[in-house]
Write a structure and sequence with these properties.
The structure holds 2 protein chains of 2 kinds.
Chain A: H1 3-8, H2 11-18, E1 31-37, E2 42-51, E3 54-63, H3 66-79, H4 84-100, H5 127-142, E4 148-149
Parallel strand pairs in A: 1-4
Antiparallel strand pairs in A: 1-2, 2-3
Helix pairs in contact in A: 2-3, 3-5, 4-5
Chain B: H1 13-18, E1 26-27, E2 30-31, E3 33-34, H2 45-58, H3 68-88, E4 96-99, H4 102-117, E5 123-127, H5 136-145, E6 148-152, H6 162-168, E7 173-179, H7 191-200, E8 205-208, H8 220-223, E9 227-231, E10 242-246, H9 248-253, E11 264-267, E12 272-274, H10 288-304, H11 306-325, E13 330-333, E14 342-347, H12 352-361, E15 364-365, E16 367-369, H13 374-380, E17 385-389, H14 396-412
Parallel strand pairs in B: 3-15, 5-6, 5-7, 7-8, 8-9
Antiparallel strand pairs in B: 1-2, 4-10, 9-10, 11-12, 13-14, 14-17, 16-17
Helix pairs in contact in B: 2-10, 3-10, 4-5, 11-14, 12-14
Classes of the chains: A alpha+beta, B alpha/beta.
């Protein structure tokens, strides 16, 4: 396979897209938000069980491409028991990695499994797929009711 | 004229391809395999040169200058209108209105014909296979007027259920608006029969011909339709130019849509009188170069011959259908008996967007997504499909490349 394709579809990404973690509405969820990518028809709902500032549980539902599903799956795995501030900080770092690629100040290795998304920047039309879950997360944290759109 | 057809009437596809400069390139280090002509078609050199020639030699505003350039520009612009007239066999050149594209043509009808004729409680009938551009303008009109949009269903193969459609066309129906060929599935509807049925009930019919004119010979008088809309860019012409054909009697009674220059015959602050057809609907300086380019595209298509084009594409569609069916896990979406050269499909549970990305790296351009037909996607129970659409410049090798690419896709997601 071509190397850029392997950069995009890393094994971790394929695994998370086929076996998404936290693919559910957590019990006691008290926040949720919907996001959609009109370009490809992807729809996602991110659910949170927020206790004060702490994300006690997080899950997602919906349909999407491998990149959007894997990104959502890895996001939920990374954010359980983290604070709102942690989530916002991680959002910024992931966003920088996705949009700026090697020019980003973020070192993907510090992002754990999420480093598997470091090849997405080479595919500009796919950046929206990878960031959909993250924008939706932000909306859920804000308690905003307007659905998120990548367009 | 060069013979682009062999003596047998078959298309010489290798010679045809030489007329399309864009096809001679590599993308991501692979020869370009362009299978997205239903989104937009590529342009033959004749069209590109017509645009160049116009801007290099004739550029001037139309219908007003006394100078030679304006005369030439006007002459070329109106000659393009006559080419369109002959191409769709309209009774008069003034039944051909130049617009931006199919979308604008449909909006024009909705905003003029629709707004003067549709009242509260009236019904407009469309089909479940429509492109958003043949849904949303009618929804907006229905919203404004308190009218109702009715939707004719299809079967699981993507064949329109004409009997069901007929049942929907009743005394309240004021317009039937449907595609001639479905953009997402390729289904060719029996529009002649449908127009007859609607006219028996005095219901006018608008046909969205965007996906039909590149593949089929269209004769608006034989079809009997009241309006026919299409885009230049899907017919190997430039973007930003399209056509609304309308029967004279209807166009005459319709009020203008946009106000401005060219659409008036006289203006005072007390009263303005409208220009005659088709100028009443062409406010402002039109896309002169676009119309001329469209005329050149029509010349090119006529030279190839729509019969030869249809025969070539029919062969390619049969070849492609068989080849795709042999790809493990592939499911064709849209398998109506009467089809234009569109191959929509799903591959296992791999998302179409991922299919598109992998194919792109193999040099293969397809469309993935909802194809601006979200209600149809809902009917099919999918969020999106992958769609390969073929034109006369495609060949069996392109289908082979697609199949090889799909095997790569399966490898990546194995």
């Amino acid at each position: 396979m071509k190397s850029e394709l392997r950069d995009l579809y890393q094994e971790v990404v394929i695994d998370h897209s086929k076996n998404p973690r936290n693919f559910r509405k957590p019990e006691g969820a008290n926040r949720s938000a919907e996001g959609m990518n009109p370009l490809c028809g992807d729809e996602i709902t991110v659910h949170l069980k927020l206790a004060g500032d702490v994300i006690q549980d997080i899950g997602f539902q919906g349909a999407g491409c491998a990149i959007s599903k894997a990104s959502a799956s890895m996001m939920t795995a990374a954010l359980k028991n983290k604070t709102k501030a942690d989530a916002e900080a991680l959002f910024q770092r992931v966003h920088s990695m996705l949009t700026e690629g090697p020019k980003s100040k973020v070192n993907p290795e510090e992002l754990g499994k999420l480093a598997a998304l470091s090849g997405v920047w080479e595919f500009p039309v796919r950046v929206k797929c990878a960031s959909l879950a993250w924008h939706t997360l932000r909306s859920a944290l804000d308690g905003s009711h307007a659905p998120v759109s990548t367009e | 004229m060069r013979a682009l057809r062999e003596v047998s009437g078959r298309l010489d596809v290798e010679r045809v391809r030489k007329d399309f400069p864009i096809l001679r390139q590599e993308v991501h280090g692979k020869p370009l395999v362009y299978l997205d002509s239903a989104a937009t078609s590529q342009k033959p050199r004749a069209v590109i040169e017509a645009l160049d020639r116009y801007y290099e030699q004739d550029n001037a505003n139309v219908h007003r200058g006394v100078h030679l350039l304006s005369e030439r520009a006007t002459q070329a612009y109106e000659a393009a209108r006559e080419k369109v007239q002959r191409f769709v066999n309209a009774a008069h050149a003034h039944e051909v209105v130049f617009v931006r594209g199919t979308t604008e043509a449909i909006n024009l009808v909705a905003q003029t014909f629709g707004r003067t004729r549709i009242r509260s409680g009236d019904e407009i009938v469309v089909t479940v296979m429509e492109h958003h551009s043949n849904i949303v303008p009618w929804q907006m009109l229905c919203e404004e007027k308190g009218a109702v949009l009715r939707v004719a269903p299809m079967d699981d193969e993507g064949t329109l259920l004409v009997d069901e459609l007929e049942r929907l066309v009743g005394p309240r129906t004021k317009l039937l608006a449907l595609g001639h060929v479905s953009n997402a599935l390729g289904t060719i509807h029996p529009v002649r029969r449908i127009v007859e049925m609607a006219h028996r009930r005095n219901v006018p019919v608008l046909l969205d011909g965007a996906q039909a004119v590149p593949h089929l010979a269209v004769d608006v008088q034989a079809l009997g339709c009241d309006f026919y809309a299409f885009s230049g860019h899907k017919l190997f012409g430039p973007t930003g130019i399209g056509v609304l054909y309308g029967r004279s009697e209807l166009l005459e009674e319709m009020p203008p849509w946009q106000g401005g220059g060219d659409m008036i015959s006289s203006v005072t602050f007390e009263k303005t009188t409208w220009n005659r057809l088709p100028y009443k609907f062409e406010a402002g300086t039109p896309h002169i170069a676009g119309a001329i380019g469209l005329g050149a595209a029509i010349d090119y298509v006529r030279e190839l011959g729509l019969d030869a084009i249809a025969a070539h594409e029919h062969d390619l569609l049969a070849y492609g259908t068989k080849a795709l069916r042999e790809v493990p896990g592939l499911r064709l979406i849209g398998t109506a008996k009467e089809k234009a050269s569109v191959l929509s499909f799903a591959l296992g549970d791999i998302h179409p967007h991922d299919i598109g990305t992998v194919l792109d790296r193999e040099g293969i351009a397809i469309r993935t997504g909802h194809h601006c037909a979200q209600p149809l996607m809902r009917r099919l129970g999918v969020a999106a499909t992958a769609r390969a659409s073929l034109a006369f410049y495609n060949r069996r090798e392109d289908v082979d490349a697609l199949v090889a690419g799909l095997h790569k896709v399966r490898e990546v997601f194995a």
